Amino acid sequence: MFSALSQKLTSILDKLKNRGSLTEDDVKGAMREVRIALLEADVALPVVRDFIAKATEKAIGQDVLKSITPGQMVVKIVHDTLVDVLGEAQELKLTHIPTVILMAGLQGSGKTTFSGKLAMYLQKRFSNKKILMESLDVYRPAAREQLKILAGQVGVTYAGYDSDKPVQIAEQALSKAKKEGYDVLILDTAGRLQIDDVLMQELEVVVKKTSPHEVLFVADSLIGQEAYTVAETFKQRIPLTGVVLTRVDGDGRGGAALSIRSVTGCPIRFLSVGEKLHELELFDPNRIADRILGMGDIVGLVERVTETLDQEESEALAKRMQKGLFDLNDFEKQLSNMLKMGGFGGIMNMLPGMSKLKDKIDETKIDEKVIHRQIAVIRSMTQKERKSPKLLNASRKRRIALGSGVEVQDVNRLLKQHQDMETIMKRMKKLGMSGLMKAGLKGLFNMK
Amino acid sequence: MTDESKSKGWFSRLSDGLKKSTSKLTDGLTSIVTKRKLDDEMLQEIEDLLLSADVGYATSHRLVGALKKKRFQQDVTVEEVKATLAEDLTSILKPLEHSLTFEDKPTVVFMVGVNGSGKTTTTGKLAAQWKAEGQKVRVVAADTFRAAAVEQLSVWADRADVPLEKGAANSDAAALVYSSYETSISEHDDILIVDTAGRLHTKSTLMEELKKVVRVTQKLSEKAPHYTVLVLDANIGQNTIQQVKLFQEAVNVNGLIITKLDGTAKAGIIIQLADAFKLPIHYLGVGEGIEDLQSFEAAAFIENLLSLKSLVDR
Q1: Summary mean pLDDT of chain A
Q2: Which end of chain B is more exposed for a tag (fewer CB within 10 A), N or C?
Q3: Residue-averaged pLDDT of chain B
Q4: Hey, is the C-beta of A145 within 8 angstroms of any chain B C-beta?
Q5: Average confidence (pLDDT) over B184-200
Q6: Percent of residues, chain B, with pLDDT higher than 90
Q7: Distance from CA of residue B259 to its chain's centroid?
């Protein structure tokens, strides 16, 4: 799930990311493309409209356009809006005895399979809980049989009251759960269309009679625009407390997650990711948003950059670079900033598309120590030397090597690297900070 | 089934089933176009409407583009906009009408699709309908994986009064289908319906398993399976396209059945499917009853979708 949407959004936002300056039109243009990407990912139209309105407002407000990395700020805004829509992670609470959990949803959304998975999850998570399951699906042939088999596979009790009246079955199962001291009662219901009034009424009565603590809306993550109306109607008729998305292992683009979450306002609790009983994941909005934007964690990087870098200092540095100036003091500043941001591995982890390079780094075993050593080398120079590296003759180099505890070759390597970077700087006047960062990294690569 | 619903013609049943989708689209259209100039703003609204009917971005955009070309800056009414849309839709959907024929005895029909799309229910309905038409039908419960899948089909087989072939839980589906085909040949059946296990199109091992079932079936006749029908849930959005694509690549799907059209407000995905794959659509599932499986007819479908009649009534 989410991969296609993520590719789309990444490519749209990539165009902005490295831009030094943005106009309002740039942002609006990007947002138009984001809109299409969201629609193609099956996000319901009202939700898309709302999303774009919010994100655009934030992006054009807040002086984003004047900041040094407007593109990345826009990325961050889209990300934050996504996280906002997806809501917070929230676990099921089993505070009541028995805690009654009811499933609701359309036909074929995966309620029965999820009921089995939930039982298995709860059993693993809380080893001492007594779990009772009951199916209220008297309509689909062999639906009750299916839950009975699943209960057997998990190793929990299946009540199986013999009746063709779901409300009656539910009441009997609840009284059994109370009498026999079950901690959890899972009630699986028949799939129903939100417009089927008779069945919706039946569901209302079941809710009234059993007062479930959790009413989980189970929905196929591949569902289209219909997600909006279906979720809305269910929400109006019964008090939903959570959402479960199934068939997340397909190649759906995950728009349903946004639609349903927006409409119901209920937290997404679980992602059901396969046919086997243990294939269930807790939902983490942050991780999903990252996945949607396919950005490793560029957002974390932007955050860390904004946290650690002194704005004025960066601006000064940027100005110098725009003029193509880059002396050893600047180099040192860059190296220290890099350390502040979690060193090499930290940065690489957060850069999109850098995973391949990361393996290479692991191979060459470049780590923070190297950066520390390079800083030491620069600090063993005089201010004059730092400003004009040309001064460095053989005897000065020997002194510096001695002072920083390295060999003369290491000093030479650092100087070569600085020279390379200086050349790059001159070429890259137009690219701004982010381009610089990458060039800086690449420069470091050449070091052995 | 009550007598009342039995006596209803298929058209009114289809209308009933599609009422939701129809009213949604027409309500929207009516509110957009009463009699005003067809300008960019209005076109955008129509496009949004198509989008929220799961028509998909590219197709919606194109349909609206065609509309613009024909009527831009003219004063238009809802009926006129609809007539123009209907015209374009007819040219897309009309060629896809196709009913199944059974020349070979037995004609082997495979039902394939993702989990929960409605394969077993559709298998049950087809068995009952074909049996009622006087065909000798047999069904195979080839979903040996999902708990109680066999029991579910067995109830349907009883209702339809057709023989059911089944294997043990988790047994080899290919072997079961092979032996069932043999039985079907020796029993001189007209039709053998194979209800395969639901599988996500992205699970390559499960798709391989399906290919194997097909290969094994072909050992008895190169022509088999005569029909490989992909069952699609109308509620599913753009992912439907992926499903059709990957199933077609794996097992040469040659027809579609779209289920759950009674609930969905958006039948628009059909337009996109037709556009992208040109696969015939055999049936639409518009309800839970046995007879709620209707042949696909483009004119009725479009008329229902855009509800020209109800517009005139307004």
Answers
A1: 81
A2: C
A3: 84
A4: yes
A5: 96
A6: 49
A7: 5
User: Alpha carbon B200 to chain centroid distance?
Assistant: 17
Q: Which H/E stretch holds residue A83?
A: helix A70-86
- Structural domain that includes position A146: 99-290
- For A48, the 3-state DSSP assignment is helix
What confidence tens digit (pLDDT) does each residue in A227-259 have? Answer: 998 999 999 999 999 999 999 887 777 889 899
**Do A309 and A255 have their domain in common?**
no
CATH architecture, range B107-259: 3-Layer(aba) Sandwich (3.40)
In this structure, what are the phi and psi dihedrals at residue A270, rounded to the nearest 5 degrees? Answer: -135, 155
A304 with A276, same domain: the answer is: no
Cβ pair B138, B184 in contact under 8 A: yes
Q: Check pLDDT > 60 for residue A87.
A: yes
Query: What pLDDT, on the 0 to 100 scale, is given for residue A92?
Result: 85
Q: pLDDT band for position B267 (50/70/90)?
A: low
Per-residue pLDDT tens digits for A42-74: 899 999 999 999 888 888 776 666 666 677 777
Interface-testing mutation among A43, A154, A226, with chain B (most B C-beta atoms within 10 A): A226
**Partner-chain contact A106 B114, CB within 8 Å:** no
pLDDT band at A439 (very low <50, low <70, confident <90, very high): very low
Burial of A446 (0-12, 13-18, 19+ CB in 10 A): exposed
Q: Which of A240, A274, A290 is the last residue of a domain?
A: A290
Domain with CATH 3.40.50.300 in chain B: 107-259
Residues of chain B with CATH 1.20.120.140: 3-96+304-313
Distance CA A293, CA A297 (A): 9
Confirm or reject CATH 1.20.120.140 for domain B3-96+304-313, answering yes or no.
yes
Task: Report chain B residues whose CB lies below 8 A from the CB of A145.
Answer: 147-148, 151-152
- Provide the domain count of chain A: 3
Burial label for A287, CB within 10 Å (0-12, 13-18, 19+), is: middle
The secondary structure element, H or E, covering residue B284 is strand B281-285
Contact: A275, B146; criterion CB under 8 Å: yes
- B20 contacts in chain A (CB < 8 Å): 195
| Span B31-86, pLDDT tens digits | 665 667 888 888 887 888 788 788 888 888 899 999 889 888 888 877 788 788 88
| Closest residue of chain B to A224, computed from CA coordinates | B237
Partner-chain residue, chosen from A116, A249, A252, that has the shortest CB–CB distance to B239: A252
Task: Render the burial of B110-130: b for 16+ CB within 10 Å, e for the rest.
Answer: bbbbbbbbbbbbbbbbbbbbb
d(CA A300, CA A290): 10
Map tokens 């002072």 to a residue: A403
